[in-house]
Amino acid sequence: GKRCTCNYDYQKLDYQVMAATTMYGMCYNSQTHQGRCSAMKDHCDSSEMYVDSTHALVSGKCPCTEVEVGACIRKNGKFKSCAMAADSCATGHIFLSPLELLNSEHDHTCRLCKDTWNCVDNEEFTSDAGITCQKMSKKRKAKQMYCEDPDVKDNCPRMCGSCCADDMGATFTVLEEEVEINCAEFKLRDDKDAICKSDGKLEKICARTCKKCCKDDATAKFKVPGRDNKLFVRNCKWVESLTKSKRNKLCKGLKSMSKVRKACMNTCNLCKK
Question: What pTM was estimated for this model as a whole?
Answer without folding.
Answer: 0.55
